[in-house]
Amino acid sequence: MQIHYFQHVPFEKPANIEKWARAHHHLLSATQFYRGDPLPDIKAIDWLVVIGGPMNVYEETTYPWLAQEKKFIEQAIKEDKVVIGICLGAQLIADVLGAKIFPNPYKEIGWFPVQFTAEAHASSLLSFLPRELRVFHWHGDTFELPSGAIRLARNEACHNQGFIYNKKVLALQFHLEVRLENVQQIIAHCGNELIEDRYIQKPEEMLSQKKDFRQINGAMQGILDRLFRQTAS
Predict the structure, then answer these.
(1) pLDDT below 50 — which residues of the chain?
(2) Which of 44, 157, 159, 177 is the most exposed place for a label (fewest CB within 10 A)?
(3) Which of 34, 98, 97, 40 is nearest to 66 (CA)?
(4) pLDDT at 101
């Protein structure tokens, strides 16, 4: 299987997704927009993974490649590809599906629980997860639920934490893909966002959660396993 990922900045990487892909001998390729890479031939890829970044979906003047990226994501969905979006990636998917993207009432940075919906637990994709899971967040914006999408998770800080659309499009506002070194890099590059606020943790608190890192790795691997089985059959 050919998995292509969109990377927006050098310090946000596919991490646990890459680990899973290599363990299962899938092929990986990338468009690194910050380096000016071209878009791939859409016919040559099976899955598209859109990872995070500090920019906003509406900053096309500052990041002109966002317009091309949105068109590609929209085409991938139309062509029935598996599309996975994480954080900014989830917002980009919501945007191309016609949903509004806007600042969340709170910035959410650090380890906070999300509650999975009954619909999530009724799906083959997420039924193995507990009702509540502590996950890693780093976002200021959020999205409306696109028409036809199924809400997967929420918490007190952010009402829409994820959705699935047409069984093959998965959008997660939170991060299950990160590893310790990834969070260290994000802190190093975006530490100016770490102000005193209700849902913003201190760096040492974020980096000390070894059990949480293990749990989200397991959750990410389990979701990818099930998505592969579901779409390959």
Answers:
(1) none
(2) 44
(3) 34
(4) 97
